[in-house]
Amino acid sequence: MLQVKDVVELTHGVLFPLLGDVDQLAEEASMPAHLLRGAVSIEGTSHALVAVDCSAALARKIAGAMFDADPDSLSEEDVLDSLGEVANIIGGNIKALLPGPSRLGLPQITRDVAAPPPGAWLHQAFQCTGEPFRVSVVSPLTH
């Protein structure tokens, strides 16, 4: 069964190579409002939604790392696409830990979120480069 430690390891494995900064665990209460969310569904034997929430500033830093460009030179579309790709990568890694076969849906972006998605049974908050980041898993999961 998927556990918080799995999400912590997967998140670190995605963010550290991109940003070169060790993400730190944070309390949910430290997460601000007005975050961006990239989410992907897992469909098949397992059914879940993986949501990745972060500040606009962190999304821009991630986009700069992905495009190897000055973060301030990137368009809003590039920033949102990068957040969707991070959700896709983390979602794909979580999918690999769940019973399969399953497939990932296309990333969806939501603006101005504050709390984990309704029904999230697993979520972990982080601080990365001084900015908020959260991964949540919503189910039902079937085994």
Radius of gyration: 14 Å
| CATH class annotation | Alpha Beta
Average pLDDT: 94
Strand proportion: 25-35%
What are the segments in which pLDDT stays under 50 over at least 5 consecutive residues? Answer: none
Order of helices and strands: HEEEHHEEEE
Task: Write down the CATH topology.
Answer: Chemotaxis protein chec
Our measurement of the CA-to-CA distance between the termini, rounded to an integer number of angstroms, reads 10 Å
Oligomeric state: single chain
The count of β-strands is: 7
Content-based structural category: alpha+beta
Number of domains: 1
CATH superfamily: CheC-like
What topology does this entry show?
Layout: H1 4-19, E1 24-26, E2 35-44, E3 48-54, H2 56-67, H3 76-97, E4 102-104, E5 108-113, E6 120-128, E7 131-138
Antiparallel strand pairs: 1-6, 2-3, 2-4, 2-5, 3-7, 6-7
Helix pairs in contact: 1-3, 2-3
Describe the overall structure.
By secondary structure, the chain is of the alpha+beta class. It has a single domain (4-20, 33-119), classed as Chemotaxis protein chec (3-Layer(aba) Sandwich), CATH 3.40.1550. Helix content is 35%, strand content 32%. It is built from three helices and seven strands. It has helices at 4-19, 56-67, 76-97, and strands at residues 24-26, 35-44, 48-54, 102-104, 108-113, 120-128, 131-138. Strands 1, 2, 3, 4, 5, 6 and 7 form a seven-stranded antiparallel beta sheet that branches. Helix 1 runs antiparallel to helix 3 (76-97). The longest helix is centred in the middle third of the chain and has 22 residues, at 76-97. It is globular. It starts with a helix and ends in a 5-residue tail after the last strand. The relative contact order is 0.29.
